[in-house]
TrEMBL record:
The chain crosses the membrane at residues 6-25, 90-111, 118-135, 155-172, 206-224, 236-254, 261-283, 289-308. This is ABC transporter permease. It is found in: Cell membrane. Its main location: membrane. It is a multi-pass membrane protein. It comes from the Bacteria. InterPro entries: ABC_transp_permease. Keywords: Cell inner membrane, Cell membrane, Membrane, Transmembrane, Transmembrane helix, Transport. It comes from Jiella sonneratiae. CDD domains: TM_PBP1_transp_AraH_like.
Length: 319
């Protein structure tokens, strides 16, 4: 993959470095092993959700049900996971299957129902949230201690959460996106008509993208369960819009066809630690949401302008 494709991620990388530098100035302990593990765990769930969102955005759609699938996965894992290793493996597989099935429903409705993605996923958001409430009407549940420590612990300065993120991004998602399916996903997002004329099965490609997105959202839910060690049917609410923000700030185009995983992952960590930085800066909790929203607006404006400029420059070079 050409390094030119990673230029759209540069703004997110610079933004995260600046934010971490200011946070370190306010709280030097964040670069201790404990602080670094805390930061890594704080951003991993959103990074996984952003990867789920990115896969759908590359096709030209948007998945408003990402947060609901995270909640559904969280409630399944926290409710049914027992103490034995066999139970843990079984429930993990069940959760991943549930997330993939949720993505499959989204994809079928979008591809063969010919309904706009934003409408489909808005409807399924309520459906999956309802299933989560049926499974876990009240917050609670539990997971084995070794499950939580395996995903959220650390070995010195190496948090296990980053290993989990790298495994998902490099060993699962990247091979798919570099395969014929990945090429088809980019092609469908860039020009659906042209992709069809090139022999690409557009409906099948759309369904596959949504299934991958559901699977990755389930991964986010499983990690969140390890982080919280409990289940809550509303815990994933914020991940829908934050995942969209991470994708845009990370350099992807909402119209589809453009974007790489690095940018949304970095942007997810940026968004995840904003509240902590505002708290360290002494901003009152009453105003933190206001400042957080204002910061996101500014960075998204710069990110969108940067991405559009890069896209126009690429179009000029091609012509």
């Amino acid at each position: 993959m050409s390094l030119r494709r990673y230029r759209s991620s540069l703004l997110a990388v610079v933004g995260l470095i600046v934010l971490l530098g200011y946070y370190w100035y306010q709280q030097p302990l964040i670069l201790s092993p404990f602080g670094f593990r805390l930061l890594a765990n704080q951003g991993t769930t959103l990074a996984l959700a952003a990867l789920a969102q990115l896969t759908v955005v590359l096709t030209g759609g948007v998945d408003l049900s990402v947060g609901a699938i995270v909640s559904l996965s969280n409630t399944i894992a926290a409710t049914y996971m027992g103490d034995s290793p066999a139970s843990v493996v079984g429930v993990v597989l069940l959760t991943l299957a549930a997330g993939s099935a949720a993505g499959l429903v989204n994809g079928l409705l979008v591809a063969y129902g010919r309904i706009q993605p934003i409408i489909v996923t808005l409807a399924t958001l309520y459906i999956y949230s309802g299933f989560a409430l049926l499974i876990r009407p009240q917050p609670g549940g539990s997971v084995p201690g070794y499950y939580a420590s395996t995903l959220t612990g650390a070995w010195g300065y190496l948090p296990y959460s980053l290993i989990v993120l790298l495994v998902v991004a490099l060993c699962l998602r990247m091979p798919i996106m570099r395969s014929r399916l990945g090429t088809a996903i980019y092609a469908v997002g860039d020009n659906p008509g042209g992709a069809h004329m090139s022999g690409i099965n557009v409906p099948r490609t759309l369904v596959s993208a949504y299934v991958i997105g559901g699977f990755l959202a389930a991964c986010a839910g499983l990690f969140l369960t390890a982080q919280t060690t409990s289940g809550d049917a509303t815990v994933g609410t914020s991940y829908t819009l934050n995942s969209v923000a991470a994708v845009v700030f990370g350099g992807a185009i909402l119209g589809g066809g453009r974007g790489v995983a690095l940018g949304p992952i970095v942007a997810a960590f940026f968004i995840s630690i904003i509240v902590s930085v505002l708290f360290a800066a002494g901003v009152s909790s009453f105003y933190q949401s206001v400042f957080q929203g204002a910061i996101l607006i500014v960075v998204l404006m710069f990110g969108n302008a940067w991405t559009l400029r890069a896209r126009n420059r690429l179009a000029v070079l091609r012509s």
